[in-house]
Amino acid sequence: MIVVLRIGHRPQRDMRVTTHVGLAARALGASGMYIASDDKGVAESIRDVVTRFGGDFFVEDKVKWNSCIKQWKREGGCVVHLTMFGQNLPDVESEIKSREKIMVIVGAEKVPGEIYELADYNVAVTNQPHSEIAGLAVFLDHIAPNALHREFPNARVRVYPNPCGKTVEEL
Ligand code: SAM
Fold this sequence. Notes:
Alpha/beta knot, about 35% helix
């Protein structure tokens, strides 16, 4: 089980990026996302995609990041913080893959120093600056089983591969 914890979200300003963090998480194999902020629109947009495109991805907002992380660790979960300053993903990938419950933390602006201490792994997807969406997508591609071949049950809309054009089924 992999969940994402989004911290540092600034209401309105980060709405689009946080929504895309959630959509990438869902599409690439995470089970759900915790958002340490109160921005109703984000949770609603992601839930709307879940309703239409299927699966059982959860979104919980207004969480307190500190207690969310500590609770996860109490339950035996592993905590991975994505940061350009961390160890490179290929060097820790197999250790992380062996864990059953993984929480992936992604930031927005500067991340509180405490996060680096709370994390079991501070992981870089290259040591170059880029974005939380890119970092999360590459991480899940490496860590989530079958990230690119997932089933999304109970969908109202299904999109089928098409070399040129769009094949969409409304169920
Ligand atoms: N300047 C901020 C800092 O010092 O924390 C970085 C903000 S960056 C725009 C937002 C988030 O993207 C980071 O908190 C981190 O989770 C993710 N990120 C950016 N580059 C990354 C990288 N090379 N590897 C892993 N995650 C990265």
